[in-house]
Protein backbone atom coordinates (compact mmCIF):
# COMPACT_ATOMS: atom_id res chain seq x y z
CA UNK A 1 0.00 0.00 0.00
CA UNK A 2 1.08 3.58 -0.67
CA UNK A 3 1.70 6.10 2.08
CA UNK A 4 2.30 9.83 1.62
CA UNK A 5 4.88 11.33 3.99
CA UNK A 6 4.33 15.11 4.32
CA UNK A 7 6.99 17.49 5.70
CA UNK A 8 9.23 14.49 5.27
CA UNK A 9 12.68 15.75 6.18
CA UNK A 10 15.29 13.05 5.63
CA UNK A 11 12.91 10.23 6.44
CA UNK A 12 12.97 9.04 10.04
CA UNK A 13 9.21 8.44 9.79
CA UNK A 14 9.51 7.05 6.25
CA UNK A 15 11.92 4.28 7.26
CA UNK A 16 9.55 3.03 9.94
CA UNK A 17 6.60 2.91 7.54
CA UNK A 18 8.75 1.05 5.04
CA UNK A 19 9.66 -1.48 7.69
CA UNK A 20 5.93 -1.90 8.43
CA UNK A 21 5.32 -2.68 4.75
CA UNK A 22 4.35 0.58 3.01
CA UNK A 23 5.64 2.11 -0.22
CA UNK A 24 6.45 5.65 0.93
CA UNK A 25 6.56 8.92 -1.04
CA UNK A 26 8.00 11.94 0.76
CA UNK A 27 7.14 15.58 0.17
CA UNK A 28 9.11 18.53 1.51
CA UNK A 29 9.58 22.11 0.33
CA UNK A 30 13.36 21.75 0.61
CA UNK A 31 15.69 19.35 -1.19
CA UNK A 32 16.21 16.16 0.80
CA UNK A 33 19.15 14.36 -0.84
CA UNK A 34 19.33 11.81 1.98
CA UNK A 35 15.63 10.93 2.00
CA UNK A 36 15.29 7.19 2.52
CA UNK A 37 11.75 6.64 1.21
CA UNK A 38 10.80 5.02 -2.08
CA UNK A 39 10.16 8.33 -3.88
CA UNK A 40 10.55 12.04 -3.13
CA UNK A 41 8.84 15.17 -4.44
CA UNK A 42 10.06 18.67 -3.65
CA UNK A 43 6.87 20.70 -3.28
CA UNK A 44 4.70 22.54 -0.81
CA UNK A 45 3.21 19.79 1.36
CA UNK A 46 -0.33 21.18 1.47
CA UNK A 47 -0.44 21.99 -2.23
CA UNK A 48 0.74 18.49 -3.10
CA UNK A 49 -1.78 17.00 -0.68
CA UNK A 50 -4.65 18.90 -2.27
CA UNK A 51 -3.70 17.71 -5.74
CA UNK A 52 -2.48 14.16 -5.09
CA UNK A 53 -3.71 13.08 -1.66
CA UNK A 54 -6.37 10.84 -3.15
CA UNK A 55 -3.73 8.71 -4.86
CA UNK A 56 -2.50 7.25 -1.56
CA UNK A 57 -3.94 4.72 0.88
CA UNK A 58 -2.86 6.69 3.96
CA UNK A 59 -1.02 9.87 4.87
CA UNK A 60 1.50 10.82 7.54
CA UNK A 61 2.25 14.47 8.36
CA UNK A 62 4.90 15.94 10.64
CA UNK A 63 4.23 19.71 10.52
CA UNK A 64 7.18 21.87 11.62
CA UNK A 65 7.46 21.82 15.41
CA UNK A 66 9.47 24.98 16.08
CA UNK A 67 6.40 26.88 17.29
CA UNK A 68 6.09 24.47 20.24
CA UNK A 69 9.55 22.96 20.67
CA UNK A 70 11.42 23.46 23.93
CA UNK A 71 14.57 23.97 21.84
CA UNK A 72 13.05 27.12 20.30
CA UNK A 73 13.58 30.17 22.56
CA UNK A 74 10.27 31.40 23.98
CA UNK A 75 10.71 34.82 22.39
CA UNK A 76 11.14 33.24 18.95
CA UNK A 77 8.27 30.74 18.98
CA UNK A 78 5.71 33.25 17.75
CA UNK A 79 7.76 33.66 14.57
CA UNK A 80 7.03 30.05 13.59
CA UNK A 81 3.55 29.17 12.30
CA UNK A 82 1.46 26.39 13.82
CA UNK A 83 0.55 24.34 10.76
CA UNK A 84 -1.25 21.57 12.63
CA UNK A 85 -4.82 22.95 12.22
CA UNK A 86 -4.52 23.70 8.51
CA UNK A 87 -2.81 20.38 7.90
CA UNK A 88 -5.58 18.53 9.74
CA UNK A 89 -8.25 20.28 7.66
CA UNK A 90 -6.45 19.33 4.45
CA UNK A 91 -6.05 15.73 5.60
CA UNK A 92 -9.71 15.46 6.55
CA UNK A 93 -10.68 16.68 3.09
CA UNK A 94 -9.01 13.64 1.52
CA UNK A 95 -11.12 11.15 3.47
CA UNK A 96 -8.01 8.99 3.99
CA UNK A 97 -6.64 7.46 7.16
CA UNK A 98 -3.97 9.78 8.50
CA UNK A 99 -1.38 10.40 11.21
CA UNK A 100 -0.18 13.76 12.54
CA UNK A 101 3.02 13.65 14.59
CA UNK A 102 4.54 16.35 16.75
CA UNK A 103 6.49 17.21 19.89
CA UNK A 104 5.47 17.32 23.56
CA UNK A 105 4.78 21.05 23.43
CA UNK A 106 2.26 20.62 20.61
CA UNK A 107 0.15 18.03 22.41
CA UNK A 108 -2.72 20.46 23.12
CA UNK A 109 -3.20 21.03 19.38
CA UNK A 110 -3.58 17.31 18.66
CA UNK A 111 -6.84 15.36 19.02
CA UNK A 112 -6.67 12.34 21.34
CA UNK A 113 -3.00 11.64 20.55
CA UNK A 114 -1.00 8.64 21.72
CA UNK A 115 2.47 9.02 23.18
CA UNK A 116 5.49 7.07 22.01
CA UNK A 117 8.87 7.11 23.74
CA UNK A 118 12.11 5.43 22.78
CA UNK A 119 12.15 3.54 26.06
CA UNK A 120 9.00 1.68 24.93
CA UNK A 121 11.09 0.10 22.17
CA UNK A 122 14.27 -0.56 24.11
CA UNK A 123 15.98 2.47 22.58
CA UNK A 124 18.48 4.64 24.45
CA UNK A 125 16.65 7.82 23.44
CA UNK A 126 13.46 8.95 25.14
CA UNK A 127 12.34 11.58 22.56
CA UNK A 128 8.62 11.82 23.33
CA UNK A 129 6.39 12.27 20.31
CA UNK A 130 2.60 12.45 20.06
CA UNK A 131 0.56 10.90 17.26
CA UNK A 132 -2.98 11.88 16.29
CA UNK A 133 -4.51 9.05 14.27
CA UNK A 134 -7.74 9.07 12.27
CA UNK A 135 -9.24 6.21 10.30
CA UNK A 136 -7.80 3.51 12.57
CA UNK A 137 -7.18 2.86 16.24
CA UNK A 138 -3.61 3.38 17.37
CA UNK A 139 -2.70 2.02 20.76
CA UNK A 140 0.08 3.57 22.79
CA UNK A 141 2.94 1.32 23.73
CA UNK A 142 3.75 0.29 27.27
CA UNK A 143 4.47 3.11 29.69
CA UNK A 144 7.79 4.92 29.52
CA UNK A 145 10.68 3.27 31.32
CA UNK A 146 12.97 6.21 32.04
CA UNK A 147 15.80 4.31 33.66
CA UNK A 148 19.38 5.55 33.67
CA UNK A 149 20.61 8.29 31.35
CA UNK A 150 19.34 8.55 27.76
CA UNK A 151 21.38 9.46 24.73
CA UNK A 152 20.52 13.05 23.84
CA UNK A 153 20.01 14.08 20.22
CA UNK A 154 19.31 17.77 19.75
CA UNK A 155 20.37 20.98 18.08
CA UNK A 156 20.72 24.23 19.96
CA UNK A 157 23.89 25.87 21.21
CA UNK A 158 27.36 25.46 19.73
CA UNK A 159 28.41 23.60 22.88
CA UNK A 160 25.55 21.14 22.45
CA UNK A 161 26.36 20.67 18.78
CA UNK A 162 30.01 19.98 19.60
CA UNK A 163 28.96 17.41 22.18
CA UNK A 164 26.63 15.90 19.58
CA UNK A 165 29.48 15.51 17.08
CA UNK A 166 31.52 13.62 19.66
CA UNK A 167 28.61 11.31 20.32
CA UNK A 168 27.46 10.91 16.70
CA UNK A 169 27.87 7.15 16.42
CA UNK A 170 26.15 6.59 19.74
CA UNK A 171 23.27 8.84 18.66
CA UNK A 172 22.82 6.99 15.37
CA UNK A 173 22.67 3.64 17.13
CA UNK A 174 20.26 4.98 19.74
CA UNK A 175 17.91 6.37 17.09
CA UNK A 176 18.20 3.48 14.63
CA UNK A 177 19.29 5.95 11.92
CA UNK A 178 22.57 5.79 9.99
CA UNK A 179 21.95 7.77 6.79
CA UNK A 180 21.39 11.36 7.97
CA UNK A 181 23.59 14.37 8.54
CA UNK A 182 23.98 15.71 12.07
CA UNK A 183 21.38 18.44 11.48
CA UNK A 184 18.91 15.99 9.94
CA UNK A 185 19.31 13.60 12.83
CA UNK A 186 18.34 16.26 15.38
CA UNK A 187 15.01 16.76 13.58
CA UNK A 188 14.14 13.09 13.09
CA UNK A 189 12.08 10.56 15.00
CA UNK A 190 13.27 6.98 15.52
CA UNK A 191 11.84 4.70 12.80
CA UNK A 192 10.66 2.34 15.55
CA UNK A 193 7.81 4.79 16.26
CA UNK A 194 6.29 4.70 12.79
CA UNK A 195 7.03 1.01 12.35
CA UNK A 196 4.77 0.49 15.38
CA UNK A 197 2.09 2.96 14.18
CA UNK A 198 2.38 1.69 10.60
CA UNK A 199 1.79 -1.94 11.59
CA UNK A 200 -1.51 -0.95 13.21
CA UNK A 201 -2.44 1.21 10.23
CA UNK A 202 -1.62 -1.52 7.74
CA UNK A 203 -3.77 -4.06 9.56
CA UNK A 204 -6.69 -1.62 9.56
CA UNK A 205 -6.32 -0.88 5.84
CA UNK A 206 -6.10 -4.58 5.00
CA UNK A 207 -9.59 -4.99 6.51
CA UNK A 208 -11.06 -2.26 4.27
CA UNK A 209 -11.92 -3.20 0.65
CA UNK A 210 -9.96 -1.16 -1.90
CA UNK A 211 -13.20 0.32 -3.31
CA UNK A 212 -13.82 2.04 0.03
CA UNK A 213 -10.28 3.43 0.29
CA UNK A 214 -10.47 5.18 -3.08
Overview of this structure, please?
The structure is a single chain. The protein has a single domain (2-213), classed as Vaccinia Virus protein VP39 (Rossmann fold). 35% of the residues lie in helices and 16% in strands. The protein has nine helices and seven strands. It has helices spanning 12-20, 45-52, 74-77, 84-94, 158-166, 168-175, 182-187, 191-206, 210-213, and strands at 2-6, 23-28, 39-42, 58-61, 97-103, 114-116, 129-134. It has a seven-stranded mixed sheet with strand order 3-2-1-4-5-7-6, with helices on both faces. β1, α1 (12-20) and β2 (23-28) form a beta-alpha-beta unit.
Largest sheet: 7 strands, mixed
Structural class: alpha/beta
Q: Rg from C-alpha positions?
A: 17 Å
Contiguous uncertain segments of 5+ residues: none
Overall morphology: globular
Helix content: 25-40%
CATH superfamily annotation: Vaccinia Virus protein VP39
What is the fold named in CATH at topology level?
Rossmann fold
Order of helices and strands: EHEEHEHHEEEHHHHH
Percent range for β-strand residues: 15-25%
Summed over residues and divided by their number, the pLDDT gives a mean of 88
Number of domains: 1
How many DSSP-defined strands? 7
- CATH architecture descriptor: 3-Layer(aba) Sandwich
What spatial order of strands do you see in the largest sheet? 3-2-1-4-5-7-6
**Span from first to last CA?**
12 Å
For the record, the CATH class is: Alpha Beta
Number of helices: 9
